[in-house]
Write a structure and sequence with these properties.
mainly beta, Outer Surface Protein A, domain 3, 3 domains, 13% helix, single chain, elongated
Length: 239
């Protein structure tokens, strides 16, 4: 190859390189930058051409984002719920929902945890009084424990039997801490707590809820026991 031919070839290659990597790159970048993109549906695929991300408009509520694993199962969903609040759902690899997070449901933010079958077993969120609440459910969906704040702002915890009846209540009030124990019918049979004198007290009730015994302390800090008949009449006391 002659000298001028080499010069011509190298010059042409330099011009081509300049155009491809500089000029064309600038044009390409200008074309790629958009102020706004409008679409009813956007689908993102992986290297195998499989659809793994969907951005869509839900006619009922609003926008949605759905993410799928390589097996085609939904694993994450982001969207708007029936209360027009944002919500995020997580699914296991087989497509079963196991966590819901969002501005749910009626009262405020919430998290719902589900078991491997998709049943709700735990709830944490705001209640109707704008207080925090935690609720535990068994695998059958029955509530077995609850933690939260009472209407007066004091903390409380309740335990339920599998029939859904509260049988133990633990909480605080203006006198202090207290525990209430109920029978299987939900009738209070024992109260343990602090009384208005800042002393301890235990109250016993019949199966129908009638008071029949009190153990506690007087203001002078001496112990006392009082017994009542089924009509509520005092029948004996110590001292």
């Amino acid at each position: 190859m002659k000298a001028f031919e080499r010069i011509f070839l190298y010059s042409a290659l330099a011009i081509l390189f300049f155009y491809v990597f500089l000029v064309d790159g600038n044009v390409e970048s200008q074309v790629a930058i958009q102020e706004e993109i409008r679409a009813r549906r956007i689908v993102i695929v992986n290297d195998a051409g499989q659809e793994v991300v969907f951005l869509t408009a839900d006619v009922s509520h609003g926008g949605q984002v759905q993410i799928y694993n390589k097996d085609g199962n939904l694993v994450v969903g982001i969207g708007v719920n029936e209360y027009d609040n944002g919500v995020m759902n997580f699914f296991n690899k087989t497509g079963i929902s196991f966590v819901d997070i969002g501005g749910a449901f009626e009262y405020g933010g919430a998290i719902r945890i589900k078991n491997k079958a998709g049943g709700v077993v735990a709830y944490m969120g705001a209640d109707e009084d704008s207080n925090g609440a935690v609720q535990i459910q068994n695998k059958a969906g029955g509530v077995v424990a609850g933690i939260g704040a009472k209407k007066d702002g004091n903390g409380a915890m309740s335990f339920f039997n599998k029939a859904g009846i509260a049988v133990v209540d633990i909480g605080a009030d203006e006198k202090g801490g207290g525990i209430g124990i109920k029978n299987k019918a939900g009738i209070n049979v024992v109260d343990i707590g602090a009384n208005i004198d800042d002393s301890g007290a235990i109250l016993f009730y019949s199966k129908t809820g009638d008071l029949f015994a009190i153990m506690g302390a007087y203001k002078n800090e001496n112990g006392t026991i009082s017994l009542f008949d089924k009509y509520g009449k005092l029948i004996g006391s110590l001292p």
